[in-house]
Specification:
The protein is mostly helical and about 180 residues long. About 90% of the residues lie in helices and about 0% in strands.
Length: about 180
């Protein structure tokens, strides 16, 4: 077996030529495409990192605003509660004052009414005891008085009309009803 040096050199030349052609026309474009793709990926990663940092800043700003809003809301609610309690206390004091004034007015009116009734009773008692009617003076029958008074009350359309009835008429009507 002999080595053919021409074939060995030709194969070596073919191999070197094939490596140079592949490097020139195949590896270079592929490597350029890979490098370009790596650059795009790095740029996207950098953009993503920048966007992530920006989103983090916005989130912190939002959290700060939210905390500020919550604090403002709490302060407003506390102020509103304080104002409403103050207003409630004022209204309660006013209602107590009005109730006390009404109680006082009612007590005074009752006292005045009692005094008036006592005075009227004393006058009527004095008239009945001191000034007895003479036998010739005609006294109305109780039933006739009751009927006339009932007609007067029935004809009265409002409180003022009933109040306008004489005290004597009312007392006679009251006594007739008691019988």
């Amino acid at each position: 077996m002999q080595i053919n040096w021409f074939t060995v050199i030709a194969q070596l030349f073919n191999f070197i030529l094939l490596v140079w052609l592949m490097k020139r026309f195949l590896y270079k474009p592929i490597m350029a495409a890979i490098d370009e793709r790596e650059k795009k990926i790095k740029a996207q990663l950098n953009d993503t990192t920048a966007q992530k940092a920006e989103a983090q800043k916005e989130q912190e700003a939002f959290s700060a605003k939210n905390a500020d809003f919550d604090q403002h809301k709490k302060a407003s609610m506390d102020a509103a509660i304080t104002d409403s309690r103050t207003e409630w206390q004022k209204l309660l004091d006013l209602a107590r004052t009005d109730a006390e004034a009404l109680r006082t007015n009612i007590a005074e009116a009752l006292e005045e009414m009692q005094t008036t009734m006592q005075t009227d009773l004393a006058k009527k008692t004095l008239q009945a005891v001191l000034f007895k009617p003479s036998p010739t003076q005609k006294r109305p029958k109780p039933m006739e008085t009751l009927e006339s008074l009932s007609r007067k009350i029935a004809g009265a359309t409002d409180i003022k009309s009933v109040k306008a009835l004489s005290t004597r008429s009312c007392s006679m009507w009251y006594r007739a009803l008691k019988r």
